[in-house]
Amino acid sequence: MTDLSISRHADDSTKPQDTTAADINPHAVLGAEIIIEQLHKFYGSVKVLEDLDLHIQPGEFLAIVGRSGCGKSTLLRLIADLEKQSYGEIKFKSARHIREGITSDDIRVMFQDPRLLPWRSIEKNVQLGLDKAQHANASALLEKVGLKEKADLWPTQLSGGQRQRAALARALSHKPRILLLDEPLGALDALTRLDMQNLIEKLWTEQGFTAILVTHDVSEAVQLADRIILLDKGHIAKEFNVDLARPRQKGIAFTELEQQVLTAVLAT
């Protein structure tokens, strides 16, 4: 690896001593800290991300909003190592109190398209990439996402919402330290979307992974995130802390924050 590569085995010695996973999420046991410094991404002469700095705490739920083309999905793909940055660094640190590196196996991505293999049953899809000893964990997750009775069906026999539930179970069956969510609920109807939001929040609370959500839905960002960042022209234009109790209710404080974020997005 060169100095411009993503650091997959960062040294815990530089981690701030007064910050722990419990500061963000008292249930966090898996989440990884992510430190992004001077990140640039160019496609030819087009600048997608420029001199971006971002620190994500272990177990934090971060939402990224912004207009189309602002670099949201590109940032997610760089964190997942699906693309390489032009320069800059992305470093990971374990939330555990031992010297332990974070590898690409600790990161899972959930896309808008569930990307299930049509020739495998739902259970076999969720078990994909797991050792035989881990298959029971996959089956348990199917029960958690409400698909225990659908385990033997083919993906085409499920609704769109059920397929996304299966995709979520597949991602979490690997017990990731980081879960990246790239508009995973964008194609769902309103009620199914709300159900999925509640399910994602429930599993995040239980498992404590670090979650990063890219969404065009400002209400969804406020509903799920601890913090929201607004990207504009490859930069972080604004940040919003979501100091609302969970589970969240759409009261006055929720609506006011939602309007603040929406106004900021519209101003970009």
UniProtKB/TrEMBL annotation:
Xref: Pfam families: ABC_tran
Bias (Basic and acidic residues) ranges: 1-15
Keyword annotations of the record: ATP-binding, Cell membrane, Membrane, Nucleotide-binding, Translocase, Transport
The protein's name in its UniProt record: Aliphatic sulfonate ABC transporter ATP-binding protein
Name of the coding gene: ssuB
Domain ABC transporter positions: 34-258
UniProt region (Disordered), positions on chain: 1-22
Taxonomy, superkingdom: Bacteria
Homology family: Belongs to the ABC transporter superfamily.
CDD domains tied to this protein: ABC_NrtD_SsuB_transporters (cd03293)
Gene3D superfamilies documented for this protein: P-loop containing nucleotide triphosphate hydrolases (3.40.50.300)
PROSITE patterns named in the record: ABC_TRANSPORTER_1 (PS00211), ABC_TRANSPORTER_2 (PS50893)
The organism of origin for this protein: Acinetobacter gandensis
A GO molecular-function annotation: ATP hydrolysis activity
